[in-house]
Amino acid sequence: MTQLTTEHPGGYRPFKLRWAPADLVPRLASIGWRGAILRLIALVTLLIGLAPSQAIRGVADDTFMPHWRLDGLDSLLGGGWVPSAGLQRILSEPGTEQTLIDLTSTFVYLAWLPVCWAVMAYVIIIRWDSYRRFALSWFGIWYVALIAFVVLPVEPPWVLESVERTLVEGSAGFVNADPNPTAAFPSLHVGLPATLAFQARAAGIRTLSRPLFIFTALTAFAVVHLGEHYVIDALGGVGVAWLTVKLVERIAVRSPGYGGASRARATRRLTGVVPGRAQPPSRAA
Question: Domain limits of the chain?
Answer without folding.
Answer: 52-271
